Structure formats: structure tokens, C-alpha cells
Amino acid sequence: MTSLESFSLAGKTAFLTGGSRGLGRAMAQALGEAGAAVALSARTLGAAQAAAGELEDLGIRAYGVQLEVSDVDDVERAVAEVSSEFGEIDVLVNNAGIGVGGAAFDTPDSVWDEVLATNVNGVWYCSRAVGRRMAERGGGTIVNIGSMSAGIVNQPRWQISYLTSKAAVHQMTRGLAAEWAPLGIRVNAIAPGYFHTDMSPVYEPQYKPWCVDPAPMKRAGEPHELGPAVVYLASDASSFMTGSIVQIDGGFTLF
């Protein structure tokens, strides 16, 4: 196998949560371009199927499934559906997540609970459901989408629940990597910085001084720039990596 061949995902089935738009949609396409058949989820079936249809138009075998990652029963159902209808999962990308801003004293318990349920419980439920199947089949790869916010405090938009959740994702990544390595399951994470999407208008005047200007590269990331890193961690190119957190933030956290 050559170095370039080690990046191939041909013959693999990938399942990416939260894949209908933004960074998730870009990562789903990257996995497909590397040769994987790609199942992706969204909270509504229509959104998931629409994104899958876009991938199929690009020549990528794709499947859309409705999923609420914070619901353990729904996770078990969706994983079983993808495995039986589309193919056993070789690669899991835990991308589904939410972020809600607000000062700590002003954050309702309901917001705290929702963010932690989605960003932490969702990663755990999906990892466990897919990990069990991977262990039975001899291994697989899991890529968690964390955040540079696991190690810094974003300003001026306070978001204590989001910071806490992403720090938990990073530590969960390390814990599962250590425990599941003997089972042939590698678990790594990506910690993105500020990326420019429809849901993250980082170049708007109210955000740019905080999100873009402090970065040494003086720009935000574009969604397609995250895809190759996911392919790397999902493929044999990273065969000796587990428990790693790959920071992709344009140098934002250097200072």
C-alpha cells in the first residue's frame, strides 16, 4: 500500500451524525470522495434524505436517516437501520451538536440540559451503539468533533454549556481510545476553530473582531478544509493514532 492508497476508504461504510448542512455536509462529501459509502443523519428525515440525494448526484453511495442523538432508543434504532439497510458501520463520525450562548447566571437549566444531552450524551450513545458492533466485527474507527473551545473561553459570547460539553467530548475520546484499543477500535477527535458557514457568520462586523482578527492566518476556515482531516483519521493513513485531538483553528489558540 502506498502512502496515498492508505487514505482510501473504498469498501468502507461511514456513518456521520448531523450531516445535512455546514461542516457535517462537507465532511460527509469528503468521506464519499475518499471512496466510502456514506450514511448521514439529521433531526428530520427530509433534511437527511435531501443531503444524501446531493451526495448521490456526485456519484457517492449515500443514505439519509432521521436521528435525535440525545435519545438513546432512537440512536439504537438508527444504528440498527443503517447497519441492516445500508451496511455495517466501519467509520463513525460524531458531528451532531448544538451551541447556545448566554452568561452563566442567565442560562436556564433547560438549555444546559439540552446542550449536554446533545453534545455529550449523543456522542456517548452513538459511540457505544456503533462500538459494540465494531468490537464484534474486529474493529473500526470513530472520529469525534470537539472544538478548540474545549481549551479556551470564547469571548464575548459566553457559552458555558458549550465549553463544558466539548471538554467532555475530548476527555471521552481519550478514555474510549484507551479502553477500546485492544478491540481494534481507534478513537480520535478534531477540534475545529472558527469556520465560516451559514450558521456561523464569522465575517459579520459583530463577530469578526473576536472570531477572525485574532487568528494568525487572519481568516476563518472554510468547510471543505475540515474534510481531509476527517478522511485522515478515518483511514489507515492514521493507523497508529488513537486518543489524539487534532486542532484545526488557523492558529487561533497559539496566543
UniProtKB/TrEMBL annotation:
Keywords: Oxidoreductase
GO molecular function, one term: oxidoreductase activity, acting on the CH-OH group of donors, NAD or NADP as acceptor
GO BP annotation list: carbohydrate metabolic process
InterPro entries referenced in this protein's UniProt entry, alphabetically: NAD(P)-bd_dom_sf, SDR_fam
Highest taxon of the lineage: Bacteria
Family: Belongs to the short-chain dehydrogenases/reductases (SDR) family.
Name this protein carries in UniProt: 3-oxoacyl-ACP reductase
Gene source species: Amnibacterium flavum
